[in-house]
Amino acid sequence: MDTANRLRRLVAPAFCALLSCVEASPAHAQTGAPLWTGTWSAAPAITSDPGFDNQTIRQIVHTSIGGTAVRLRFSNLFGSQPVTLGNVHVAQRASGAQTVAATDRAATFNGQAYVTIPAGGSVVSDTVAFQAPVLGDVAVSFHVPSKTPPNSTGHPAGLQDVYIAPGDVSGDASFAGGVANAAGGPSYYFLANLDVVNAGATGAVVAFGASITDGLASTPNMNRRWPNRLAERLIAAGMNVGVLNQGISGNNFFSDGDSSGQAGLTRFQRDVLQQANVKWVIVSDDAVNNLIGGNPPTAQRLSGAFEQLISQAHAAHVKVICSTLTPFEGIARWTPAIEDTRQAVNAFLRDPSNGCDGVLDQAAALGGPGDASIAYASAFNSGDDLHPNDAGLLAIADAANLDWFAGLPAVRAPSGCGRLAQGEGLSIGQTLASCDGRFTLTLGRDGFLAIVYEGAAIWSTSDAGAPGVEMRFEEDGTLSLFDSNGARVWQSGKTDMAVGYAYMQRDGNLVVYSTAGKPVWATGTVVNK
Predict the structure, then answer these.
(1) Is 281 in contact with 78 (CB distance < 8 Å)?
(2) Nearest-CA neighbor of 427 among 481, 501, 490?
(3) Contacts of 271-274 spanning 24+ positions with Cβ under 8 A
(4) Which end of the chain is less packed: N or C, by CB atoms within 10 Å?
(5) Could you tell me if 236 and 339 lie in one domain?
(6) Largest CA distance in the chain
(7) Angstrom distances, CA of residue 514 to CA of 433, 490, 520
(8) Cα angle at 511 between 506 and 513, to 5 degrees?
């Protein structure tokens, strides 16, 4: 008889009159699954390249947070036919195309060195034991063994040199024969995400927008896009938050393009809400391109687009930081009527009733004197009256309120074996063992609270709530599980009695007791043995 079936027979009905017994969900029976958080990303679009054939591509990605393991996502979203790649290597970068040889690690796909990505699809590598640096450069190298069609899935205008070499030299630290930007400019090809295992990560924030988010006018190879500068501020403040750039130059809310990607309203679900451990999104400059792209929409339609994204994000428990639209008086398509629309949209975004969880006021950060400035301050203008320079991008990052991304206060550790007093609890990966050590209350890496006995979960919150990052025994007498935004995602039953403590008992039952010593809530997981 397997362990799970044996446990079902051992669980007694002693406390089922007090609370319905809950069986463990097989999907969450193992509580040690890694919790992934995004540290780098590039939004997929269509690049300009002649295709690849028996060549190695080495790409440099700049991390936000670090980690003890990584995984890679490769995309063929816009491909017309399957693409094969493999012999993937990750290593810390030394300089240029060179890597630190001692850090080099190979990545596989279901144990295989090569993988074929179907047209329209993507693949994720197996977990790679690799020490990802904080705010550091990681080289991702892979071999493309056979001819691929031109115009690959990737990220145009990557602002980072990419190196192409003949043959298979993925594991070569010197990258012999490599040439910078040989295929069609400093773009990213096929590579979409780098995620890390970081047990202390609060979550990830996605910067979603167009060329200003993409950092189009920033200095190449210097990582001076405003999402990069925001990551620097977060790390300097001791905040363990991944920052993911999902800006695409030329992107807008309503229409698709090749190099400018799918419409913002179309790609939001994939490019934002499907990111690893996403907790926040900053919706930035797509609407600017709608205003200057010909046939500008009304302020009502643009405000409606923000409302649609806010609704989708909140349904996924993701908070939304709305960015005001930056000024652009001076470009050929600027008109007073378009300016009136921009001002109306910004008034909507600054209105506390709009549903945004915060406002990143880029217009105020970059504009000249006055609250309704219609042009860039000269110190922040790249020269085209549309894009901020390095100083302007830093000003955007500096305008962000870091309190938006604050984690929960540290929970107090249990003060005795098996026992939780009010205010005590567990963080991700922590446990509370019964006094005889047979049973363990665990907040697993998957974010669910579970009681584990002989390596299997006999009870879990996975059937009744969403994952969280912290469990506390509250003053109202409930055991409560919170996500990184501080939202309660699960709690035990309430009672009118004065509650004293919670106890992980030697019989496998987790019980909340009143101050008079009477049980007022229990998991009903008594194990007879």
Answers:
(1) no
(2) 481
(3) 271/43, 271/44, 271/206, 271/208, 271/246, 272/206, 272/208, 272/246, 272/313, 272/318, 273/312, 273/313, 273/316, 273/318
(4) N
(5) yes
(6) 80
(7) 21, 21, 6
(8) 120
Other CB atoms within 10 Å distance of the CB of residue 467: 22
Distance CA 265, CA 274 (A): 14
Q: What are 441-461's pLDDT values in tens digits?
A: 999 988 899 999 999 999 999
Which two structure tokens, joined as six digits, stand for 185? 């400019």
Shared domain for 365 and 460, answered yes or no, is no
Cα distances (angstroms) measured from residue 219 to each of 5, 144, 215, 382: 61, 30, 9, 11
pTM above 0.70, yes or no: yes
With CA atoms as reference, report the closest residue to 62 among 122, 10, 138, 7.
138
Look at residue 449 and give its three-state secondary structure.
strand
Q: What is the pLDDT of residues 56-87, one digit of tens each?
A: 999 999 999 999 999 999 999 999 999 999 99
- Tell me the C-alpha distance between 101 and 189, whole Å: 23
Same domain, 242 and 177: no
What the block records as the tokens of 92 is 């810390």
d(CA 373, CA 364): 8
pLDDT for 485-514, tens place per residue?
677 889 998 777 788 899 999 999 999 999
Encoded amino acid at 466, one letter:
A
pLDDT at 293 over 60: yes
Helix (H, G, I), strand (E, B) or coil at 266: helix
Q: Look at residue 434 and tell me whether its pLDDT is greater than 90.
A: yes
Domain span including residue 27: 3-33+428-527
| CA pair distance 96, 79, nearest whole angstrom | 29
Residue 150 sits in the same domain as residue 53: yes
- Other C-beta atoms lying within 10 Å of the C-beta of residue 3: 13
- Residue pLDDT, tens place only, 404-418: 998 766 678 888 899
Is 517 part of any domain?
yes
Tokens of 405: 């991304």
Residue 416 lies in a domain: no
> Distances in Å between the alpha carbon of 494 and those of 17, 425, 476, 498?
16, 17, 7, 11
Q: Which residues in 303-428 belong to E strands, given as ranges?
A: 319-323, 358-360, 419-421, 425-427
Strand ranges for 96-190 from DSSP E:
98-99, 105-107, 114-117, 122-124, 128-132, 137-144, 153-155, 162-166, 179-180, 188-189
104-150 confidence digits (pLDDT tens): 999 999 999 999 999 999 999 999 999 999 999 999 999 999 999 99
